[in-house]
Amino acid sequence: MRLRVGCEFGFESDVPVPMLMLVGVRRDGDYRTVSESTRLDPELPLREYVDGFGNRCWRFTAPVGLLTTRYDAVVAIQGQADAVAPEARLAPAQDLPDESLVFTLPSRQVESDLLMSDAWALFGGTPPTWARVQAVCDWVHGNVRYDAEVSGPATLGSAVGVYQRRSGVCRDFALLAVGFCRALNIPARYTFGYLPDVGVPPPETPMDFHAWFEAFVGGRWYAFDARHNTPRIGRVPIGRGRDAIDAALTTAYGPARLIRMSVWADEVADDHPAR
Amino acid sequence: MRLRVGCEFGFESDVPVPMLMLVGVRRDGDYRTVSESTRLDPELPLREYVDGFGNRCWRFTAPVGLLTTRYDAVVAIQGQADAVAPEARLAPAQDLPDESLVFTLPSRQVESDLLMSDAWALFGGTPPTWARVQAVCDWVHGNVRYDAEVSGPATLGSAVGVYQRRSGVCRDFALLAVGFCRALNIPARYTFGYLPDVGVPPPETPMDFHAWFEAFVGGRWYAFDARHNTPRIGRVPIGRGRDAIDAALTTAYGPARLIRMSVWADEVADDHPAR
Amino acid sequence: MRLRVGCEFGFESDVPVPMLMLVGVRRDGDYRTVSESTRLDPELPLREYVDGFGNRCWRFTAPVGLLTTRYDAVVAIQGQADAVAPEARLAPAQDLPDESLVFTLPSRQVESDLLMSDAWALFGGTPPTWARVQAVCDWVHGNVRYDAEVSGPATLGSAVGVYQRRSGVCRDFALLAVGFCRALNIPARYTFGYLPDVGVPPPETPMDFHAWFEAFVGGRWYAFDARHNTPRIGRVPIGRGRDAIDAALTTAYGPARLIRMSVWADEVADDHPAR
Amino acid sequence: MRLRVGCEFGFESDVPVPMLMLVGVRRDGDYRTVSESTRLDPELPLREYVDGFGNRCWRFTAPVGLLTTRYDAVVAIQGQADAVAPEARLAPAQDLPDESLVFTLPSRQVESDLLMSDAWALFGGTPPTWARVQAVCDWVHGNVRYDAEVSGPATLGSAVGVYQRRSGVCRDFALLAVGFCRALNIPARYTFGYLPDVGVPPPETPMDFHAWFEAFVGGRWYAFDARHNTPRIGRVPIGRGRDAIDAALTTAYGPARLIRMSVWADEVADDHPAR
What we know:
The structure is a homotetramer. Chain A has helices spanning about 115-125, 130-145, 160-165, 170-185; strands spanning about 1-15, 15-20, 30-40, 45-50, 55-60, 65-75, 145, 165-170, 190-195, 210-215, 220-225, 235-240, 250, 255-270. By secondary structure, chain A is α+β, with helices and mostly antiparallel strands. In chain A, the strands form 4 sheets. In chain A, strands 3-6-1-14 form a 4-stranded antiparallel sheet, with no helix packed on it. Chain A has a 4-stranded antiparallel sheet with strand order 4-5-2-13, with no helix packed on it. In chain A, strands 11-10-9-12 form a 4-stranded antiparallel sheet, covered by helices on one side. In chain A, helix 3 links the parallel strand 7 and strand 8 (about 165-170). In chain A, helix 1 crosses helix 4, helix 2 (about 130-145) crosses helix 4 and helix 3 (about 160-165) crosses helix 4. Chain A starts with a strand and ends in a 7-residue tail after the last strand. Chains in contact: A-B, A-C, B-D, C-D.
C-alpha cells in the first residue's frame, strides 16, 4: 500500500526567527520512502540534521514576513494494522536494554515520579504483560475526554495536567499513558506522525498530525494509541522522544506565528507520482 | 597535579532492586585517569555502559540485605582554575551546534519555559556575552540561600521550585541557573562530579559530590558554579545531562535505602598509588 | 543553482542475489535535497541504512531475472567551485582529530605502507601545507594516463597497481593520490558521487559517476581531484570511505550481472520538478 | 575468576614520534574491570579515545630518548571456556545485521576477494553452520605451521601471504581464517588481547599478546582460534577490527623503536590488589 503524506505551514514573523521543525518521515521506519520533496517559499537555506532520538530536524531562520514550508512524500507500507501481542511479557528492570532506560525516567511533560502511587494503585494488579499497557490505554481512553479546545500549540501540556483535567487532544492522551507506563517501570516513548484514515471514517475536523506512544514489551517496541485505542493501519512516525518537547513539531527561538497549517495522509495508487 | 577521588555507599534493601549508579569519572575529561578500582561487597555482577550523554552508568541489582559499593581513582589534572573568558560572545540560536540544541529545551527539573519572562526581565539588559551567564550566576548566588536541610536525595528539586523557595543545595543552585540560561536561549547542562578543596578552606560539612553547570559560550562549553561563584581548581565531572535526573547519582527501580555514603576528592603526591 | 542527479541500473541474475548499493546523495553535504525518488522494477523490499562512514546503503535482494533500480534527485547547491586554500597547513600527526586517524591507515586498495619511501622521495621536499597535497595531485595527473579500458567494475584496482601501471580511470587516480597522502601522514579519503559538466565541455564518453578524494588540510576536509586537477562546480558526494571497497557503488553477495547503467548530473532551472 | 593482565613497553626514539597504542581491555567485554592503572615514564600527556571499532586508543608523543609505558588491570571473568554452538546456522547475506557487513569486505591484510575460489573449493561442501567456520579453523590449524621467525612487528602479514607461505604467528593464523570466512560471506573480525594459560601448559616462549578472530554465526559473534583450535578460558579482548591494522598494538607516525616488551595474563586470588 502507498501513502502520500505531507504538510504545509504558513508562518508570519516580525523579526528573523531561528526554528527547528520535524515533518520528514523517520528514516528507520518499517516502510520505504518512494519519493520526497520539500519546498520553502521564499527560498531559504535549510539544513537537516538527525537528533539524538533519530528525528530529522530541519533548521532554518524564518524571515521577516511570510514563510511557507511544504513537505510531501510517498511511502510504501505493508498495510497491516498495529501488531498486538497479548502474551508478550514486560521485562524486569534489570533486563531492559541500556538504550531503553532513558524512557523510564520522568521528563518535562511526563512527571512519572508524581504518578507513581496512582499508577501502582490503578494498574499494579494487572499481569506483568502486554495486558498492563493495555489497561493503561483502556483507562486513559475511558477517563480522558477528547477536547480540541483545551490544548493548542501554545499550551504546554503534561501528564499530571491531563490526569487532573481529564481532557485533551491526542498528544495529551499519549503523555498521560506514557506517564503511567514509566511510573510502572515500563519504557515508553512519545511518538507523533502521519496517520491516514484507512478503514475508519474520516474525522470531522480537518486532518492533523497524530500522536501516540510506544511501549517496550516482550523485547521490542509496540505502538499503542490511547486516543483511538484500536489497531490502525498506516502509522508513519515523524518524531520520537521522551515527550512532545523532545519531539516537537516546531521549536522557535523567537516569536514566529503559525498562521496556517494543512496536513495530508492518504492512500494512493501504487504508481502515484509525487506532487 | 594528582587527585584521588572516589566514594563508598552502603545500601540496604528488603527485596532485590535493579539500580543505576554514576560514580566513575567521565572518559572525555581534560585529565588522565591514572588508576581506577571498583569494589562491591558482596561481589555482584556489575555492568557498565555509556549513556547518550556520555556518562558511565553502572547497572547492578542490589541484593536483599546490605550492599557496599566503592569506587576509587587517581586522576592527573593540569591544576588550573576554571577558565574565564569575559569577551566570549553568545552564539545566536541559528549558529548553535546541532548537538547543543537539546540543552536549550526544558526538562523535568528545569522548567525553563516557565522562567522565560522573568529571565528576560532580569538578564535581558546584559550584553549577549559571557557577562549574561555571569549575571545569572551572580543573581542565583546572591538570592538563593544554601540550606542542606531543604533538599535531600529524596526530594525532587526543580528550577521553578528553587526560584520560589530561594534556598537549596548545590544541585538547586545549578538547576535554577540552568533554567535561566535556557530561557535566554543559552545551551546549559547540569554537571556533577568530584571537587577537591584545592586553595579554599575545607567545608564544615563532610565532603560530598558537587553539582555545577556548563554553558555554551564563544563556541565551547565552560564550567560555571552558581553555588561557589568563584573559579575553582580540580573539577572532575562524573555526570552531565539536562538535569539531575538524566545525570542522577543513583536511579533505583525499587525501594533501596541509602544508609551510608562517603566521598573523597583530595590532592595527592604524584607517585600516589591507588588504595 | 539546482542540479538534477540520478542513475538507472539494469541487473540480470540467475539466482536471488543480496546486494548493497550506494546511489543516494549523502545527507551531510553542503547542499539541500529538494526532492528525491527511488524506483525498483519489479517492486522489491528495499531498506536503507547509514554505514559507519555516513553513506546511505540500500539493501535488497536482486530477484531471478531482470531488475531495474532508479534514483532521481534535485539538489540545491551554492554553485561555487572547489575551495582552494594554498596557505592551509598540514597538521602534525599528534594534532589530527581522532576521527581522521582511520584515514591515515592503509586499506585494501590503498597500500600506503608500500608507498612510503617513494612518497617521501617524491613529495618530502614540498612545504607541509596544501602545496604538498597539490604536488601529489599534479604528479598523479601528469603521470597517470586516463584509460577506460584498463579498469572496469570487475577489476579490483589498488594504489600500488595504478602506480605500476600508470593508467586507469578516475577511481584509480583517486586511489593513488590517497595512497601518497596517507604515506605522508595526511588523512585522505576516497569519495565518489555526481559531478555535472558546469562550465566545462561535456565528456566524449557517456556521463558516469566520478571519483575524487578529500584530504585533511588546515583543520578541515577539502576536495581534490587528481583526474581533472582543476576546481569544479557541483560535486555531490554519494560515498566516502577508505577506498572504493568501503564506498562501493554496488556490493553483491552472489553473481548479479550489471547489464545497463545510465547516470545523470545536469543543471536545471530553479523550479524544476522531479521526474 | 580474576585475572591480572597488563604489559610494559620500552621505546627509544631519536625524534618525537606521535603514537597510537591499544593495550587497555575493551569496555564492552563479558567481564568486569576491577581495577586498572597506567603509567608513563617519563610522565607525558596521554589521551584516550574510543575508535570506530570500540577500541580504546591511547594517543601520546614518544619523546626523544627512552619511554616506558605500563598498563595493569585486574578483571573478574566468569571463567568458562569459549562457547561452542555446533548447531548454530550461518545467516544468509540478506539477513546479516547492517553493522556486521563491514566485516564481510576485504581489507588491507585480508584480501578475501582473492581467496574466493579457493575458499569455496575447500569449504563450500560443508553445511552452512558453525561447522563451516570450524572447518576453516581446522584447515588453517592443520596447514599453517607456527613459526615465530617469519613474522614480527615489522612485517606486514596478509591472508594471501600466509596462505602462500603456510607459516606464521597467531596473528597470521587469524588473518587467513578471517580471509576464508569473508570469502564465504561470513562476517569475521580480527581480535587480539590477553589470554592466560588457564588449564593448559605454559608456552615455552615468553608470554605475549594473543590474536584470534570472531565470526558471526547463529545471530551473534563467537570467538574462534585457528592457532590453538581448542576452547580456552579467559580471553580478554583489547582490539577488534577488520585486521591487525585497524586493531594495531601500536601505530607510530615516525621512527620509534620498540626495545623491550613484557606481557602478563595470570589468574590471581579474588582479593588480589592492583600493583
